[in-house]
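I had to read the description of the data format several times before I understood it. The format is easy to grasp once an entry is in front of the reader. For illustration, here is how one protein appears when written out as sequence plus structure tokens:
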Amino acid sequence: MKTLTPLTESEVKQLVDDWYLKLDVHAPGEEFLSMLANETLEMQLPETTLHGQDEFKTWYDRVIHTFFDEVHTMQSLDIKTTSERADVQLVVRWEASRWQAPAPKSQRLAFDAAQRWVVKRSQLTQKPVIETYIVDSLTPLEGFPSL
């Protein structure tokens, strides 16, 4: 097995930035796959836990058909790297709109999402990939509804 170069803080930060940009523009699901570990991926979300890229694709397709006008704004980001991985703790403000039939208008949502990620370097591509993605809390901002 090839020895992998340790991750740098800057390349992990770039992964985080790219991730949220793609979410905001509803990039095609395939564009996320190179950012995610394949067989070992685990995503603990408020509504479900996903394993692997296929479950991510199904979840993502549902999300982009539920929420629109999304904006993710980083509130805090802490990256700690070791020789094997990067541990990421972040809080991102997520704002989105949703329309639930038969409501006459859409509804604006706003949350602070505290998350923990484990990022590793892909054996295949040598690029950083998210292996573990945990949403620890999803706190609605004052005056906004919950999910």
In short: Residues 97 and 103 are 13 Å apart (CA to CA). The mean pLDDT is 96.
